[in-house]
Specification:
By secondary structure, the protein is an all-alpha fold. 63% of the residues lie in helices and 2% in strands.
Length: 393
């Protein structure tokens, strides 16, 4: 029985590269002076032509018609096991099985006959060479679930799966390339950003790494600040509104919108590698100055701004003051300090002054003495002695 010899993987890939650029030529006459040599040359030419037309299918056929399918015993078929075939070929059984599995997948798709329909030495019409790589995995790692995922990703990117699998099998080499080459590092960064949405565990680890590194943490904070400033300017351009220092949303004047649009266009024109922090700061400061001028130049708006600022401060003070309780204190003597009472008394006086000022501003003008028969209102009670009484009152 004649058994085909499976070429090495390097030889296969080299032959595939040659086959992609080679057009088979008609058979040429061979010098008949040496019949043995002439036959050897002609056989090589035929083999080369077959490979040029079919690529890996030519060798897949040799495996498919010579290696017995699983489940068949040695006495049921003249074919041999993959292990025996590999020993005769001088290669590993793993490599033989990659050809075997590629043929099996193609047979399931109806591209080639099933193993049972083939016998040693049989020739069949083979698919085009380009189709072979759809089924054949040149590396054993491609047969795993991880390898299949890498293969699919490589095909989606339009590259040969063998290249991606080789990188995945050599993480140290990948690390060296990232450390040494900015282009590789940039490609790795973009790949991580593309993956981060689908990999919560990776996202968590990256965040932890950033938090642990002070320089990265500061850089993230700076970028976030720059991003917020750019968003502030962009909102003026896109929505025509701007937030005042006190938190009011007002319509942005035409001059303000034009200035915001000018700064934003400069930021948008920056290259990906350029720092935007300084540009964002300049745009933000310019716009904020114009907003302040807009507020000061409009008396009605200026009053609204002061009112909004007062309410904002009042809300913050109220929230802080409401936390001044002794609910979690077992013995108040343990935390008592004279300075606490003094500060609370100062605060009480300040609050009282605010209340008096507001009441005075809204009270009607007093009538002349004796102009009405009404009695004078009773005197305002004294301020409570402590904070808790003040809240209750």
């Amino acid at each position: 029985m004649t058994v085909a010899i499976v070429p090495s993987e390097d030889a296969t890939e080299s032959a595939e590269a040659v086959a992609a650029e080679t057009v088979p030529a008609p058979a040429a006459a061979v010098d008949a002076g040496d019949p043995a040599a002439a036959e050897a040359v002609a056989r090589d030419a035929r083999d080369f032509g077959a490979y040029a037309r079919t690529g890996g299918w030519a060798f897949g056929l040799k495996v498919a018609r010579s290696v017995r399918p699983g489940g068949q015993g040695a006495g049921e078929t003249p074919k041999i096991s993959a292990k025996e075939f590999a020993e005769l070929a001088g290669c590993s059984a793993d490599r033989v099985m990659r050809y075997y599995k590629a043929w099996d997948k193609a047979a399931d798709d109806g591209m080639v006959p099933h193993f049972e329909a083939l016998s040693p030495g049989m020739d069949v019409e083979l698919p085009d060479a380009d189709v072979w790589l759809t089924y054949y995995a040149a590396r054993s790692s491609a047969l795993s679930q991880r390898g299949e995922a890498i293969t699919e990703a490589a095909e989606a990117e339009g590259i040969r799966p063998t290249k991606a699998l080789e990188v995945a099998e050599n993480p140290t080499a990948l690390r060296a390339a990232i450390l040494a080459d900015p282009g590789t590092a940039e490609a790795a960064r973009k790949a991580l950003m593309d993956r981060i949405d689908e990999d919560p565990a990776l996202r968590t680890e990256l965040v932890r790494d950033i938090v642990r590194a002070d320089d990265l943490k500061k850089a993230v904070a700076a970028e976030a600040k720059a991003g917020n400033r750019v968003d502030y300017v962009r909102q003026i351009v896109e929505k025509g509104q701007v937030k005042t220092p006190a938190g009011q949303m007002i319509d942005a004047p035409a001059e303000l919108r034009e200035e915001a649009e000018r700064h934003l266009s400069l930021i948008d024109e920056l290259d990906d590698g350029e720092e935007s922090g300084e540009w964002a700061r300049e745009a933000y400061d310019t716009v904020r100055d114009l907003v302040a001028q807009t507020v000061q130049s409009n008396p009605e708006l200026r009053v609204q701004e002061r009112r909004a600022k007062f309410y904002s401060s009042l809300q913050k003070a109220t929230k802080v003051f409401e936390e001044l309780t002794f609910d979690d204190v077992d013995d108040i003597d343990d935390i008592y300090e004279d300075d606490m009472v003094r500060r609370l008394e100062d605060l009480q006086q300040a609050i009282g002054a605010c209340i008096t000022a507001l009441q005075t501003a809204t009270a009607p003008a007093p009538a002349p003495a004796g102009a009405t028969g009404e009695e004078e209102p009773p005197a305002r009670p004294e301020s409570p002695a402590n904070a808790n009484e003040w809240i209750a009152s």
